[in-house]
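Dear colleagues,

I hope this message finds you well. In preparation for our joint manuscript, I am sending the 4-hydroxy-tetrahydrodipicolinate synthase (Fictibacillus enclensis) sequence together with its predicted structure, so that both groups work from identical material. I would be grateful if you could confirm receipt.
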Amino acid sequence: MKMPVKFQGVIPPIPTILHNKGKLDEKGMGALIDFLIESKVDGLFFLGSGGEFSQMPIALRKEVAAFAIRYVNGRVPVLIGTGTPSTMDTLELSHHAKDAGADGIVVINPYYWTLTEENLFKHYADIAEAIDLPILLYNFPGLTGQDLSPEFVLRLVKAYPNIVGIKETVESVGHTREMIYTVKSYKEDFAVFSGYDDHFLNTLSLGGDGSIPLTASFVPEFSVGIYQAFKKGDYKKAIKLHRKLAPTLSLYKLDSPFVNVAKEAIALRGIDISTDVLAPARPLNEEKKAQIKSFLSQLLDESAVLVK
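The corresponding structure tokens are as follows:
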């Protein structure tokens, strides 16, 4: 295994920049990666929900993973999402991520079928036994239809030491609290990340480790600022930034899936990218683009970069 990485802080899920009818735009991806590293994020997560993995053929997922790892070149830790509804495909993508040099993988549970707990356990067991990399679980029951309970996660962690953390994209603060208390009582360095941006400060205050927030792909200064202020004990500043960050989630209501919203917001920050998306996502109309621009203009101070 590679030297273990302590995953913590702000690790944005990176929108995949595409052009020419669904081809990877390496120039645009590179510009976004550089912007986020310069913004002092603590890592980068490629091929999550915001990265459109669910619309991609396996070949494109591999291409994105290989480029991202190569371009980041060790500047920050890189996580690659490898989850699929198929154990076989998940293993193939996970082996590829390891061979390409990823620091870890993020594995969402299979969607479409609701699995028995034993079948779900065996799915993760097959991956943990085969892949010599740190693994973060990805709990998003709103999309997968099946929750990863704290007790289930503890069972996995006790059996497989390379399962080192979880992204908790759940509405219930109580669920994240129980995840922290239940799993960290056994494995103190198990990393618990909030998936929803407005749960970040609460997750930190309960003993969690960070956030994997899509808004950090276009307003990283808020999440990064919250984390840095919290670490320094400047809770007044952390709360102030959290109150500025929380309303950004209203942007997600503009469309579904909202990957197009994130890309338009990134472009408005002055990052030279294509805002193409993979079907069934569609480009935003001009009215919705104007709403994003108006929102960001009100949110950001005059020192921030925003395309006029």
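For the figure legend, we might mention the following. The longest strand covers residues 163-168. The longest helix spans residues 58-72.

With kind regards,
E.M.
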